[in-house]
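Quick illustration, no need to memorize.
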Amino acid sequence: MDGIKYAVVTDKSLRLVSKNQYTFNVESGSTRTEIKSWVELFFGVKVIAMNSHRLPGKRRRMGHTMHYRRMIITLQPGYSIPSLINLII
């Protein structure tokens, strides 16, 4: 699981769990197919859609820092990630 940094727990991500969508911060150099295969292999689920966006970097004296992007992963109906649901509840 080199590419996935951690699961995101925000108000929006909590609302998306009811729609069977989970939010993760991932390495910016990882591809969509790598992230999809890691999620399917590690959690044992089927991914049907993935949306991603880069978060704005923080301003520093010597430039920007941006080391990750956010992925919203939609699972097939009937699948869920129980470890994240237990974390949220």
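Helices lie at 11-17, 32-43, 82-88.
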